[in-house]
Structure formats: C-alpha cells, structure tokens
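Hi everyone,

Forwarding the result from last night's run.
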Amino acid sequence: MQIQRLAWAISGSGHYLRESLDLLNNLENVDIFLSKAAAEIIKQYGFQASLEATGHRVYHDKTASSVPVELFYQGKYHTLVVAPATSNTIAKMAYGFSDSLVTNVYAQAGKTRVPSIVFACDTSPELESEAPRDNRVKVYPRQIDLANVEKLADFEATTVVADIAALSAAISLRLNDLAA
C-alpha cells in the first residue's frame, strides 16, 4: 500500500509566506504546488533557499491543463493545504474557477474527496502583512474579499483558517486523525 502524502499549494502572497515555509520545513511526505505568482513572489521575497531547504517535491504551474492534478486521481494525497491563499485565489475557489495549478488542485481535491485546509490572507478588515525586503504594511481587505472567505468556509471538506497558529493547529489535528 502506498503512503499518502500531504499536498501543499502556494499562491502569490507574501502574507505569512515565511511562516508557511517554516511549517513546510517541519513536515514529511509533502508535495508542493506553486502558482506562477507564487514562484515569482518566493524569489522576490528572497525565500527560494527556504523553499529548496524543505526538500519536498515542487510542481510548477507550467501546463495549460495543470497536469500534476492527475496525482489526486491516483489517490496520492490525504489532505490539501493552500497556504497562503490570495484574495484572487480565494475568489476563484469560492466560485468554482480552476484556471491555475492552485485552483485546479483545490477543485480536484474536492472532486476526489480529499479534505482541504485553506489559510486565507484576507480575513479581517485590517491586517499587517510582510512586504518584500522585510517591510511590514497595513492592508485593508475589501468587503468582497471577506465575503469570499466566508463563502469558501461553507464548502464541504474545507477548513478555512485565519492565522498561522490556526493553520498549524489544523494541520496537526488532521495528521493526528490520520495516525489514529
């Protein structure tokens, strides 16, 4: 019997990207799926070495049909984590669009009954976020961004979390449930 893996998708946000990569570094049996924007942001923020240090397989958004999603059909994954997830990615997932590797992975996880944990960037009316070169900035998510997070939270087999502590706790709970 094959060991199922954790699938982790990253969209193009720097919001808690450093902390998400730190979490990834402490997990085993993970495949990483990067959107085109995530690949750019990881380099822009200077986190390429952190990504490579995880030692996990990395799939890039390089095909029109998101070929790596076939791994979900083969039963390779027990859980999908999308972290961090931009407001654009959240909106697409909430309305059923699957036009990038990250949104397609989320759609296929749902269609193959793989539970998802989503760390949404825009979860409160005012946030502080990391910008390139270690700068901190205030951001003010729009009402539509907050509404899309709420909509996604109502999806079956989807847990939406609002901060890195909740993400870590949700992953630990899921892994503990699988081990039991």
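The mean pLDDT is 93.

Cheers,
N.
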